[in-house]
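User: Predict the full complex structure for these chains.
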Amino acid sequence: MKKRGIVLALAVFLLSSAFLNADSFSFSTRINSVSGGPDGFGMSLFPLGTDFEYNAGFQMIKSSPYKANLEVRMVFSFSEVSLGNYDYITGEPWWADGQIDNELEGTYFRPVSQLTVTLSQGFGVNPVAGSGNLVNVSLAYFTRFAMARESINLFSDEDSNNPVFLNPVYTSGNPIPAYPWLYGNRINWNNAVRLSSSLYLRRTTTNTDNHTGAYFNLTLEAGPSWLGNSVSSGTSTSNYIKFSAEATEYLTVFVIEQDNGWNWLNLELGHTNTGGYIWGDIIPEHQISTDRLRGHFTDKVWLRFTGPQFLAGDCYPYFELSLNNNLYFGSVQNNSISTRGVELRSSVNGEIHLRLFGFIHVNYQFGYNFIKGFDAMKPNWTQSASLGFYVSL
Amino acid sequence: MKKKALSILVLLLIAVSNVFAIGFGYHVIEAETEMDFASGIFPVALDYQFNFPVPDIIEGSSTVFAFRLNNGLDFRTLKQNPETGEFYALNPEAVSHTLDYMVLYDEFNLFFSQGFADDLIQLEVSIDGRFENAYEALNFMYKGDTDGLFNIVTKNADGDYSSADRFSSFSGAPELKGDRSVFQTYVSGRFVYDSIDDYIVKRDGMRFESYFRITGPWMPLNDKSGEFILSENTLTISRTLFSAPRSENRTWTSFVFDNETTYRLLLGQKVPYYIQGGEVWNEIASPATTHVITNSTSVTWYGPQITQDTYPSLSVFFNIGLSVGKALNSDDSKSYTELVAVYGFEAEIMIFDIAKLYWQWGFVTNPVFNEECRAISRIGFTLGV
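Assistant: Here is the predicted structure of the two-chain assembly.
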């Protein structure tokens, strides 16, 4: 593992040195989000995980007027994960025949750290905005380190006296097809490459992040077993190819401005579709999708009221009302029987957000969810509500 | 604690010299790593800061109003018996169970800092808080046959497991009482006199820093798990012994001598682990007593600057720590005097002043109390800005 670490660090060093020919390299930092810890750590008020990135703009193609960007993004988080619902030998889901012969149960602790290095190059000028790039092509290398260890609450009370991983399923050394990330020493180092292409036909209409226009994206990601995804015994912990696409359209319906140019109120109408499918015989933990179905298609329409801005340009509330229709389909991941299923999940959601100095982000969301899924006993309609607090830029 | 030592260079080069030069918005001060997690390659904790937009009150000197957050995972080794406060290192042979545990933590500081005389002097006041929760080590029950630090685990005849608490009282480790979580608030202040001319691979001058932190049951929002006063005073002297200039902003090579002396005075009834300090090198810390003096002497060779802030370096160091006085969190009225010494080297490659690849090796020539002399080696990667 040490060797791989040095290779990785050297690769980053060489990569960054190779693109370097002047001291005028400028970096910027962003904190994308922070997340809470496992089990309501610190009353859920205190963040524990963080997602941050460094960006550097530079000239990669000498004859091109368009800049390239190198982004290094790191994420770490800690969570408690519950097992269940799948046969660990065949990967059969609980809904296939109403019962599971070989089920694993329990809760484990999962610290995760991810590193993504993305090199992107822009081309052309966005004709809608008159600035920025029309097309952006990026190539990313993704690497993820995760461990599965006993729950941090093990033995903390009467009900948590059961260590998960002393089960012979884990200690016997046999593969666990439905949970490849729980095999062996349960230390996972997974790698993937991602090729992505975006088309920008939108412009920013306000300084509160509203748009008019359209955005399209195509992404292909591969985590083959030969890309450092095998453990020492030769067993692979990842082998997949994933394709995904997105199309989003925006329209800023109206903007009412204050005297100083800030907004009193504006309205954005938006619509987005995403779709994708994942192929492969070994799907790693971070690519396990909703109910383990390989395909998805989503449709979302939203209305977003923003304003007024107060104190500083980046202090404002917004209210978003959305209608979501998500379809999950295809065969089940990490399943040797090729069971197929279709599931529809729809929801009407409201979200109230408050942003202060682009720094503190409070949100309250509520919704009605409709799930036409596998569980006949579950009511089709459920209500949900949550309060969130996080740091964002 | 060890990660603090790992990043001394990053902190010296970045935080000290540049915090007052960085502008509005977010700044990642440091990404922290642990050897037990991915060999120290991936981060488990992050220290970052948001600067509010404030104008400089005095022209030529910086005014900073900022919120700093440090959160993540920390791996620790218990040094004093929670029931008696006795140092484990006095009798290492007698300890048959693990002393390792893991902490999830969050620390925030809302601070205001003002420079005077072109930032030669800085004054800072801060309101701080810290949330912590301690758990068994990450590899607890990993092999199925190990006891924890807090839990004595037994396997019953029917194959089930049960556990009993190892400790019944926690006067020697007040933050591990009850559900092993604490929330403490503080006020702190800092005075800095800094006359070091810092040109990354050349440093000349002197820096003095005095830091003060206090908490007690009278602080609002405090869970009363801590009660202490800390005064930490650091004097740093740097001198460039030799340098070969390459161009205006770069050198071919240089040698720099640094000496840092710290005196810590720590008074109080309940002193949590994370404030005890006294780091000599990596996880080696001078025993937690009322007075702790540490000194670090190093000579660093800097190789050619590939860019202004991309270069290799190699430093040779000799660090000592001297603890004097009564043991903290202990009913024992005996006074201790203990010297700890470590020598070794650190080889590093700094990349854009942001990423650092390092290899460190140190030999503990005068260990803590009755522990054995040993060598420690580690390689890793850190990020910071």
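The CA atoms of residues 86 and 93 of chain A lie 5 Å apart.
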